[in-house]
Write a structure and sequence with these properties.
alpha+beta; three-stranded antiparallel beta sheet; 3 helices; elongated; 2 domains
């Protein structure tokens, strides 16, 4: 069982990361604030982008075993780099093993 705040998360304003009700998309409570040293419009843009990246990463990994993420990335890279000579059965077997690891509750 995961010990972090459950998804979905969303950006609220330019610095707040919040959990939201998946049925209504309403903000429930703040999870964190993103701060940057300095001030000015460029810092606001960077802060907003950092908040959005945090939310995108967390939501994309919902229901995945975090220890399996590197293997998922490697598998995706292997698929992207493959050519017509690749053994499709072996590729399917490897991807299935990674999928099972990613869905395990560790």
């Amino acid at each position: 069982m995961s010990k972090h705040t459950p998804e979905p998360w969303k950006v609220s304003g330019d610095r707040y990361v919040r959990v939201c009700d998946p049925k209504t998309d309403a903000d429930e409570h703040a999870i964190c604030q993103v701060y940057m040293r300095g001030s000015g419009p460029e810092r606001q843009v960077e802060r907003t982008a950092n908040s959005a990246r945090i939310v995108s990463c967390v939501n994309a990994c919902a229901n995945l075993n975090p220890t399996a993420i590197p293997a998922l990335i490697r598998a995706a890279e292997d698929v992207y780099a493959c050519n017509s000579a690749i053994n499709i059965a072996a590729l399917r077997h490897a991807l299935e093993a990674v999928r099972q690891q990613a869905e395990s509750k560790s």
